[in-house]
Design brief:
Layout: H1 8-16, H2 25-33, E1 38-41, H3 48-58, E2 62-66, H4 70-82, E3 90-93, H5 99-110, E4 116-119, H6 121-124, H7 127-134, E5 138-143, H8 163-170, E6 175-179, H9 184-194, E7 200-203, E8 211-217, H10 221-231, E9 236-240, H11 244-256, E10 261-264, H12 270-281, E11 287-290, E12 303-308, H13 315-322, E13 332-338, H14 340-349, H15 355-373, H16 378-385, H17 398-401, E14 406-408, H18 410-422, H19 429-437, H20 442-446, H21 464-476, E15 480-483, E16 489-492, H22 494-501, E17 507-509, H23 536-553, H24 557-560, H25 563-572, H26 577-580, H27 588-609, H28 628-637, H29 642-649, H30 653-665, H31 673-679, H32 682-694, H33 700-707, H34 714-728
Parallel strand pairs: 1-6, 1-7, 2-4, 2-5, 3-4, 5-6, 8-13, 9-11, 9-12, 10-11, 12-13
Antiparallel strand pairs: 14-17, 15-16
Helix pairs in contact: 2-3, 14-15, 18-19, 19-21, 23-25, 23-27, 28-30, 30-34, 32-34, 33-34
Length: 730
């Protein structure tokens, strides 16, 4: 058959009912029909699947579609069978099939009835399947989710590295590789590993103007999510969590609060997973709470929100997961909760991996942190990461809608470029930021950079966080590039060298600092996740009251209520103690101890201003499955060592301290003296206690800087903060 002579639009309408192609689809299909190797980089919702489905239906033989997930295969096969009267048109071959079913699949392929065969790379690697496929006329190979090939991709799978030699053994046919997320480095890895460096490349824009991106500090997330979903009632959404345990707990919590939600993770049996996925697709439930295992290839165009309970390990993963929102071009709200502690945990999880895997993982994590903390346009920054330039800010992210104060950054960029030049373009962003800020950690001292004249040349401008922001924006402006092969060392580009010769004024913004809790009246009040902005007048009145109460009780303001709690009060207007308990960061103990004056102030304010209050104040709680909190309280009352509690509950010390912090912040007093006295001597205890007595923030990083990184561990300072808040705040 001469494929050049056919009318592709007719085939498109015949099989899929569409009258025209989308974006690059037609060019890709023609390339596959011409027998050319093809690389397709197309964002989620761009129509990647059609790029191999249509040519497979037109060409002679069977197309082999290599895909990573059984759920994805099932979804795709069902979709293909729906467009044909013949059930044999598409099959999958994997471990879920019985021997009889496998025989039927092979018979249909040999009879020429099957146009698409979906296989996992593990199934392709089996000797009996390879021998069978040698007897088959293969039209082409399609490698879906091709980013799995690269160690720099967000979902690296070693078995994907074996695809090329297997194809050579079965018999070479044209290859089409497809992915929704690939940096230039990942793209190169894919082509090199598959042996298709000469492939024709079809790259669509990563820009999704209908997606709204927002990053929020991670405080009382469960309550915030309930309020958000209730304000978006009836809309479909996905919530991503990193742990299976949190998936189960959050799904329970949502259901208790009358939100139809189901869990989805790899620890569930395949039938339950499949049933839950189908219920979401059929709109029997509104929300799926899932690990990243969910969503690949799920063709639900009207997902209206994607929430990240935890920030993912890479920007590729984040972009792909948020890309499941608004695939129909309609509203897509992408909200992520960010905590530096979460990032530290993710880094700790890498410690058992090889050095190269750790370096790659840390660099990917650093990009995620930079994205979360930036105050630049989020779409602009995401596109820059994928090698694309967005000329103007998107106007549709939290940073565009609520811009940070700008400053003239010419001198800062010149300082940064000169430091990079002097240290010979051999170091990563974090190292350069430390040299500029005058922060001599062990690595800076190892290279003796603390002895250079330029060490601390930017100390008066700002701290490490400030310089990270400057360096990130210098990358986006094209003055710097990252040498990925050398784990992200900063290089000055041609444009950067020209800028050093002829600098001009350029506006920059500072990073967000989610650990900051400064009493700065001029600081912009962050907008609320539930869609309504905080009442700035009430917010200021609440801060003034907090200051007054803190002086009366002789404790720092953060011991009373933190800023996010005051902000939520200025959105929700609680006028009773019961309502105050539902506010972010306020538990029963704090509400009872400090709440009376605050609710009285709010009540008077609401009456004077005739304000209509939100009616969805009450968020129901669900009993924790693990019973950890009760066990921890009882164990501490019995003076059991914290290490023994960790061992009994199979948790890390970091997680135990987080649970204890949650308990005391909600108003329960705990006495840890028996343990603290054993691990921290009296003199150091007094030094830490005196520090927290005068501290403006509860930040552990600030405490570490003040008291000395070499003298204290993060764990010790957290213990002392627990002791301080428990004694002073209860």
């Amino acid at each position: 058959m001469n494929y050049n002579e056919i009318n592709l639009t007719e085939y498109l309408h015949k099989f899929f009912g569409f009258d025209r192609f989308k974006g690059e689809q037609e060019a890709v299909v023609k390339n596959v029909l011409a027998g050319r190797d093809t690389f397709v980089l197309m964002p989620t919702g761009g129509g990647k699947s059609l790029c191999y489905q249509l040519p497979s239906l037109i060409m002679e033989g069977t197309a082999i579609i290599i895909s990573p997930l059984i759920a994805l295969m099932k979804n795709q096969v069902d979709a293909m069978r729906n467009i044909s009267t013949d059930e044999c048109i598409a099959h999958f071959l994997n471990s879920s099939l019985s021997k009889q079913q496998i025989m039927q699949v092979k018979d249909d392929i040999l009879a020429g009835k099957t146009k698409l065969l979906y296989v996992a790379p593990e199934s392709l690697n089996k000797e009996e399947n390879m021998e069978f496929l040698k007897q088959t006329k293969i039209s082409f190979y399609a490698i879906d989710e091709a980013h799995c090939i690269s160690e720099w991709g967000h979902d690296f799978r070693p078995e994907y590295r074996r695809i090329r030699p297997i194809i050579e053994e079965i018999g070479r046919s044209p290859i089409i590789a497809l992915t929704a997320t690939a940096t230039p480095k990942v793209q190169h890895d894919i082509q090199k590993n598959l042996g298709i460096t000469d492939a024709d490349i079809f790259k669509s824009s990563f820009y999704r103007p209908n997606l709204y991106y927002e990053v929020r500090p991670k405080l009382d997330v469960d309550k915030q999510i309930v309020k958000f979903i209730k304000q978006n009632k009836g809309k479909s959404g996905i919530i991503y969590c990193l742990s299976r345990k949190k998936v189960e707990e959050l799904a329970d919590f949502l259901n208790v609060n009358d939100i139809k939600a189901l869990p989805y993770h790899a620890g569930m049996d395949s039938q339950t997973r499949s049933d839950n996925q189908d219920k979401f697709l059929m709109e029997e439930v509104d929300v799926i709470v899932a690990t990243i295992a969910f969503g690949m290839g799920i063709d639900k165009p009207d997902v209206r929100f994607v929430i990240h309970y935890d920030m993912p390990k890479s920007l590729e993963g984040y972009y792909q997961e948020t890309g499941r929102a608004g695939r129909d071009g309609g509203e897509g709200l992408c909200i992520a909760f960010y905590s530096k502690d979460d990032m530290k945990k993710l880094e700790k999880f890498m410690q058992n991996k090889s050095v190269s895997e750790q370096e790659i993982g840390k660099q990917l994590l650093a990009e995620t942190i930079a994205y979360a903390e930036t105050s630049m346009c989020r779409s602009k920054m995401l596109l820059n990461y994928f090698g694309e330039n967005l000329e103007e800010p998107c106007g549709n992210c939290d940073n565009c809608r609520h811009p940070q104060q700008k400053f003239q950054g010419k001198q800062a960029i010149i300082k940064a470029l000169k430091v990079i030049e002097i240290i010979q373009e051999k170091f990563k962003t974090e190292h350069v930021a430390k040299v500029l800020a005058g922060e001599a950690d062990s690595q800076v001292k190892t290279y003796k950079h603390h002895k250079l004249d330029i060490f601390g040349c930017g100390e008066d401008d700002g701290d490490e966080n400030f310089w990270n922001a400057v360096l990130r924006q210098a990358l986006v402006h094209g003055f710097l590039s990252k040498d990925i092969e050398n784990y992200g060392t900063l290089k000055i580009t041609k444009e950067g060298k020209e800028y050093m010769k002829k600098p001009y004024e350029i506006e920059l913004t500072k990073n967000h600092d989610y650990d900051s809790d400064e009493d700065d009246d001029e600081q912009a009040v962050p907008h609320s996740m539930n869609g309504g902005a905080s009442d700035p007048e009430l917010f200021k009145m609440l801060k003034d009251l907090r200051k007054k109460v803190s002086k009366q009780r002789n404790v720092p303001p953060f011991v009373i209520f933190q800023d996010p709690s005051l902000e939520d009060m200025a959105v929700q207007y609680p006028i009773t103690i019961d309502e105050l308990k539902q506010i972010v960061g306020v538990g029963q103990g704090k509400a009872q101890k400090f709440g009376k004056e605050f609710v009285e102030l709010i009540r008077r304010y609401v009456q004077e201003k005739e304000i209509e209050r939100p009616q969805d104040m009450i968020v129901k709680s669900v009993v924790s499955r693990s019973g950890n909190k009760v066990y921890i309280i009882q164990s501490i009352d019995r003076k059991i060592d914290l290490e023994d509690i960790c061992e009994a509950k199979q948790i890390e010390m970091d997680e135990l301290l987080s649970e204890i912090e949650s308990i005391i912040n909600s108003g329960t007093k705990l006495n840890l003296d028996y343990f603290i006295d054993r691990v921290i001597d009296d003199e150091r205890q007094q030094a830490a206690y005196d520090y927290f007595d005068h501290a403006e923030t509860e930040s552990i990083d600030d405490a570490m800087n003040e008291l000395g990184e070499d003298d204290w561990t993060e764990e010790e300072l957290r213990l002392m903060r627990i002791k301080y808040i428990s004694e002073k705040g209860h």
